[in-house]
Amino acid sequence: VLLIRVAIATTSGCPNLESHRKALEGKLGSTVQIKIFNDFSGRKSYNVLWAKPTSVRQISKLVKQAKKLGLTVRTVGGGHSWSPLHPDPCQIGVSLSDLKGEKYSLDAENNRLTVLSSENVEQIMQWAANKNVTLGPMPLRVLDASFPGIIGTGSHSSNINASPIANDVVGLELVDGKGQVRKFSDNDEEDKEVIDACRVHLGLCGIIYKTTIKVIPDFKLKFSSGVIPVRKLLDTTNRKDLVMNNWGVVMIMPLTFAGATQAEKQVMNADPLRRIPESYDIRNENFFVRIWSEVDQNTPIQDPQPDSITLADGSSYSTTSVIKPFSSGIYNGAFSIEPIGCVRPRSAISFAQPESDDFLASSATLENGLNVLERIFKDIGFYSRLFGANIIRWMKHDDRCLLCNTNIADANKKVMFYEASTNFDGCNDYIIGSTGRTRLREFETEFGAGVMKNNSQSLPHWAKHNPYVPGMTDLFRSNLNENLASFLNVRAKYKLDKKNVFVNCHLRDIFTLV
């Protein structure tokens, strides 16, 4: 699920890379390249073997030859993972973007859509909309993500009443670690065990070339966006009312110091580390709020127009609203993480934490998180070429998903995701320089450690964690231990990858102690 640079690489550091490339190319009968791999954060760069199979037969040949050569294989999707889920150096990265075959098959009677892994989320949503159906839990804008990639980390959903989209998977077609074609459907009782385990697969169940997912009839929603002071949404009653009485809510606090006074900004900009003075209060910032609201389905489509939102305490704030089908609103009803101009996403640290029925749990998380960010800005500073956002969203847990981060939920099944992401200004220098890397690592480490402190009920986002943040990887083992073991047992029982062809170093580390 990461980004690949197009330039041809040298074989430095990988003495057998060229011979491996020739062996793979000879077996596949198609081009295998040596390429420079850049992770999504732009902090790592190394050589990988790069294959783009066009058929399931070629995928099978690739896996068999990789196994023979002692190489590992990781499938690479649209590039939206900051975590090290990517191919290891000198190993094989696979793109399915050139895969040929029937791209879509809709079973309208049973509301099931089968999709070829060459297609990304935007293409799938557009095709489905033309058939008047849509994917239910999918408001966030990750349009160029591959479908196996977006289910593979299990953290994408719509609202506090919707579980991750991985829970809508009802069928998988894949090539296993022996190079054998396997098909699993929830119509078969035995297959359900595999599907439940491999909903969040992390690339460990095989190379998935087709996914079948439940769809629902397309429907209209009102999409609204506006600005609400942080202090207002720290109020438990206001926040609970907003989240529980709307179809979906995402709260985004830009890390731009808009709430700082001019004097505070002058002090910060004069400091070499850009530390903001002690007088700064992060609670003077604002949340940009995205709200999805249900409407009568007879309501006509409506262009953007002025609107307002009223909180539980009676205070009102201006918004801009539009009414449109959910399938189309996904594109501009949410925020984008695609590169814009010379701005590129650079990092994200995210945790799933239980939400209580009274929303006091999220009050504690928000207060702690804001305190952590404020101390970072005052003690460490914020690198001048970085900016980003603090993002809060909600979803629910479904017990069928072994490795979903939402397993951290209490009995009420409610979960809040708490995240800090950063962007980097400078796409002419794709790889961040040493100063930028150091400052970014400081920020991520302090934020991650601060959020985890005295809060053992946290699960990192599979695609938004970093192993160098102390204790972060341990949370997977401590809070998912039995589920990790069950996943490994299913993987072994059905012989999905006996020789660990699909395992990279990071995932091996997580699972080794289970």
Automatic annotation (TrEMBL):
InterPro entries: FAD-bd_PCMH, FAD-bd_PCMH-like_sf, FAD-bd_PCMH_sub1, FAD-bd_PCMH_sub2, FAD_lactone_oxidase-like, Oxid_FAD_bind_N
Pfam families: FAD_binding_4
Coiled-coil ranges (or none): none
Domain of life: Eukaryota
Gene3D superfamilies, alphabetized: 3.30.465.10, Uridine Diphospho-n-acetylenolpyruvylglucosamine Reductase, domain 2
GO molecular function: FAD binding; oxidoreductase activity, acting on the CH-OH group of donors, oxygen as acceptor
Protein name: Uncharacterized protein
Organism field: Owenia fusiformis
